[in-house]
Amino acid sequence: MIANYYKIDPNGPLELSNLRLLYTLVGGRNFHWFFLVSLQVEIVGGTNILPYVPVTQEAILAGDCAALSRALQSIAEGIEMITAVMARTYEECDPEIFYNVFRPFLAGWEKNVFKDGLIYKGVSDKPVKVSLHDSKIYLE
């Protein structure tokens, strides 16, 4: 997901109003919005939570309660920001379409209606399971 976007304005901010997906599967705007929101969660977490994780570890090891408190407060603020971004999912992603149209593609192979895989025209006449691991594509 992280590499599946572009900025509308290359000089603009990394925020929902300036992001578009490079590739989509199904669900039209609903699909597009769901993944843009997911991307925005990653961006917010990476910039507003992740930097404070080592700070908390260092503060704990140093016994610095004030630094720990500041870092934890920053993490809490980042979580609030993520919560606000996630709440925007409903703006353009209908839960009915999410659940019935593209959730099956996100459920993995074992617990969805495509448990035997999908038939990919030009690849196989029988159902195939495709998975991604360590940046490599595997066909089962």
Q: Could you please describe the fold and organization of this structure?
A:
The strands form 2 sheets. A two-stranded antiparallel sheet has the order 1-2. It has a two-stranded antiparallel ribbon with strand order 3-4. It has helices at residues 28-48, 52-62, 65-87, 89-92, 95-106, and strands at residues 5-7, 19-21, 130-133, 136-139. The model has no long low-confidence stretch (mean pLDDT 87). Helix 1 (28-48) packs antiparallel against helix 3 (65-87) and helix 2 runs antiparallel to helix 3 (65-87). The protein is mostly helical. The protein contains 5 helices and 4 strands, in the order E-E-H-H-H-H-H-E-E.
Which short descriptors sum up this protein?
two-stranded antiparallel sheet, 5 helices, 4 strands, 51% helix, 10% strand
* Unreliable residue stretches: none
Helix content, binned percent:
40-55%
Computed structural class:
mainly alpha
Q: Please report which band the strand proportion falls in: under 5%, 5-15%, 15-25%, 25-35%, 35-45% or over 45%.
A: 5-15%
The global form is elongated
Order of helices and strands: EEHHHHHEE
Number of helices: 5
Mean pLDDT metric: 87
Radius of gyration, Cα only, in angstroms? 20 Å
Number of strands: 4
N- to C-terminal separation?
22 Å
Largest sheet: 2 strands, antiparallel
Strand order within the widest beta sheet: 1-2
Entry summary:
With 140 residues, the protein is mainly alpha-helical. The chain has 5 helices and 4 strands, in the order ββαααααββ. It is 51% helix and 10% strand.
